[in-house]
Amino acid sequence: MYHQYREGYIEVICGCMFAGKTEELIRRINVLSYAKQKILVFKPKIDDRYSEIEIASHSGRKVPCYAIDDPEEILDKVTDDVQVGILSLRLLNNDIIISFEGTDNTFIGWKEDFALSYEYPTKSHLIASKYVSDTLNKNNCNIYLCGHSKGGNLALVSALRLLPSKKSKVKKIYSFDGPGIPADIFKSMDYNMIKDRLINIIPNYSIVGVLLYQENLNVIKSDAIGIMQHEISSWKVEDDHLLRCEESSLSKELDVSIKVWLTKTTHEERRQIIDEVFDIFVKSGIKTTDDIKENKIKSVNMLLKNLNGFSKESRTLFNNYMKMLIGEVGTNIINDKKKVIKEKISELKDKYDT
Hints:
Blueprint: H1 21-34, E1 42-44, E2 54-56, E3 62-64, E4 66-68, H2 73-78, E5 86-90, E6 96-100, H3 107-114, H4 123-138, E7 143-148, H5 150-160, H6 164-167, E8 170-176, H7 183-186, H8 189-192, E9 198-203, E10 217-220, E11 237-238, E12 241-242, H9 249-264, H10 267-283, H11 289-294, H12 296-304, H13 312-353
Parallel strand pairs: 1-4, 6-7, 7-8, 8-9, 9-10
Antiparallel strand pairs: 2-3, 5-6, 11-12
């Protein structure tokens, strides 16, 4: 049997008529309500015996709910606070390119990328997956999926969540500095079935593109510095191709530190740490990456003042990131420039010696 990898589980309450099935369901709903959990209740619209807008037991106990005709209506209720930008283009040969919008340069947008470390699948994943699946249902064609940053991750996840019969319709998946996927999904049959068509492209100082688990990275040059290399407009192009280069030591070190952090923290610990880190950016008045780029030293000092009361794990992770993003970036770039100068000197010597 084919297994779709999703978080969560299904519990079935069964029994004969008047066994108390609805009573047990209402009891569980009330328990979760008392625990202040977020709950949405649905029932088939045809079940209108006692109420059209409530789940009702024979004894008269009732709980408000959504009455639906089709299970897909559930997505309309659970994703009303999520924005997913999608652009579809039909080629002359009838194939379709589906491009997913990425996050902007705000730290709220960047938090979406980091949130993938503790949340999978996200509401955005569900929306993107449904869109791709519906597109294939309505069109007898091949598709190409692509996206930058969060959009690259949506392109990858929407492909691996397709049924096996539909996966063959995906010809290529392009992720431009997009986050990877959780370890268990990375090892899954779903991923194995589409990885040969996945093209990961990252800049040599990638920060987002090394999040979670990735492989076969195509590293390209950028005109920008450090964190700003995430902006795709900074990537260097020559004729009809991107200029290749080696991944920086900074990016490699970040990749390793992220993997270590993932193995030593639970999903809930990651959620807490990331919430605390991004809360510091908000308190410090840093809303976009431009705020760091324009006055780095001031930004660092503002952030450090807010470290009081920080958990040990959060402080360690945060300091490492700031060290890499701001402190070591300059050193690495200087070393790269020195390397280029040495190569030029070597070329000149060879030229004049001959």
